[in-house]
Task: inverse folding
């Protein structure tokens, strides 16, 4: 019996090593927000079972770290909106406790902390978040902090979850930093957009809505040939090769646009 238990433990350990190997190899190809979400579902969820995940990131400054954005993976967006503070930023006691201790945090909704804010806990329960296992990385070299909060985790939270968080958080941090850098590079697209003329921007607005050249010509009272001329100029200025590529890029740009205030939810 002891031998069988030992063999089962060895098999579980080997299986975990295989999953972590798959996780790190798959991480190398993650470049976009969609890649990141797919990677967490396919590579992290088998290792660390959960239903929802929120990954926050922000710049480190003299007063601490501010949350610039959150990548929501199967996460109830309404819950994020409900826990925004008056300044539009997210306020969570889990992150506050991490900032005080710099240690992985486990929270069970059935056994809440005595000092948990009532409003936050009410929203936590209302959205069925169940529990939290969270850890963060304070990267002073990049001046970026990332926070990784897993929810609706099966079973009882304990030391195994803490150990897993310590292993996963540094990997997730590196991948998320790369995704953020790529996202910031998207600002270059803003520069290209600013080079368009007023008429080209008008044509672009209709293109983004999926309108054909004929429909655009009728909407803005130009000939189809003139619309086509403007479109070719837009392609050149924005470095696009096709209408489909242009529409896709515009959709990405709109989805990632920084709100006037508050936290960007991706």
Result:
């Amino acid at each position: 019996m002891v031998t069988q238990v030992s063999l089962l433990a060895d098999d579980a350990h080997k299986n975990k090593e295989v999953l972590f190997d798959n996780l790190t190899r798959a991480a190398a190809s993650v470049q976009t927000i969609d890649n990141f979400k797919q990677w967490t579902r396919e590579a992290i969820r088998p290792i660390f079972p959960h239903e929802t995940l929120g990954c926050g990131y922000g710049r480190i400054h003299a007063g601490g770290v501010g949350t610039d954005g959150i990548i929501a993976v199967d996460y109830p967006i309404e819950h994020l909106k409900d826990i925004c503070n008056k300044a539009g930023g997210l306020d969570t006691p889990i992150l506050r406790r991490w900032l005080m201790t710099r240690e992985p945090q486990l929270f069970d909704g059935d056994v809440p902390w005595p000092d948990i804010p009532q409003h936050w806990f009410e929203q936590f329960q209302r959205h069925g978040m169940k529990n939290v296992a969270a850890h963060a990385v304070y990267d002073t070299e990049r001046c970026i902090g990332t926070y990784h909060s897993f929810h609706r985790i099966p079973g009882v939270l304990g030391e195994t979850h803490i150990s897993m968080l310590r292993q996963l958080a540094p990997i997730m941090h590196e991948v998320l930093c790369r995704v953020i850098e790529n996202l910031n590079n998207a600002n270059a697209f803003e520069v290209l957009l600013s080079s368009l003329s007023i008429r080209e921007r008008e044509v672009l607005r209709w293109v983004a809505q999926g309108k054909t050249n004929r429909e655009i010509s009728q909407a803005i009272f130009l000939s189809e040939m003139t619309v086509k001329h403007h479109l070719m100029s837009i392609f050149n200025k924005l470095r696009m090769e096709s209408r489909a590529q242009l529409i896709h890029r515009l959709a990405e740009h709109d989805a990632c646009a920084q709100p006037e205030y508050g936290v960007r939810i991706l």
